[in-house]
Amino acid sequence: MNKKQLFDQIRAKASYLCVGLDSDIHKIPEHLRKADDPLFEFNKQIIDATIDYAVAYKPNIAFYEAHGLKGWESLMKTIAYLPDDVFIIADAKRGDIGNTSKMYARAFFEQMNCDAITVAPYMGEDSVKPFLDFPEKWVILLALTSNAGGKDFQNLALTEGDQLYERVLKKSQDWGSDEELMYVVGATKAEALTNIRQIVPNHFLLVPGVGEQGGSLSEVSRHGLNSECGLLVNSSRGIIYADGSKSFASVAGSKARELQQEMANYLEKYC
Ligand SMILES: O=C(O)c1cc(=O)[nH]c(=O)n1[C@@H]1O[C@H](COP(=O)(O)O)[C@@H](O)[C@H]1O
Asked: What angle do CA 53, 58, 60 make, to 5 degrees?
């Protein structure tokens, strides 16, 4: 999916919501655990309930890999079930020497037909570039992550003055354009968004950390929205585990709708 198509979807649904499919066999409702493929059954019902309110879905690969072959099957079935007009992010946090990155890219872009993959920038240009060789596919580079430990490296001041995350934003612009590169910025770091928007005014940002991690959708939207929206805000546990009973899907749908309605207001106000 290209940037225009993504923005068209955002306008059509008045939403920049990404639903995180961090589907954990120990957290899904009891009655689904007896199904043939419990993770897929859970995801299917979550997708059906939230599809009108979300433009993107982000399966977190760890939750599937943890189950070996069966988990990969649940993941592939989930991706195949998602309609073509939603943006699919493989949250895989990959990145390795060039020939290995190329194989990761083929796995997630060709085998699984995802639109985007999260990539760690730590190994530098030749580890990121192979992911950028695929037309209309996206690299989402970790810049300023939502977790407390992110500051151990990302906020370190370099001798030239930038913090490390700022250097990631600046340097990576030599590798690809805003038609193929996005950045992860945690909702818990909303205070940095004004500065980030000065460095990357036009790029899309994937913003996880609203809901369970306590980030504010209002703050993120106020400081992060640009004229083409420029945001995909993810919530995983706050939607998919909002209710643990047989009503889990309809409660997930209501949670997604609440976020979408808030987003519709912000789009009107700031975009
Ligand atoms: O790359 C990510 O998606 C990510 C980056 C980051 O900085 N923080 C972060 O929480 N995430 C992911 O976003 C999701 C957040 O989940 P919830 O906190 O349950 O909404 C998880 O899948 C995390 O792995």
From this structure: 145
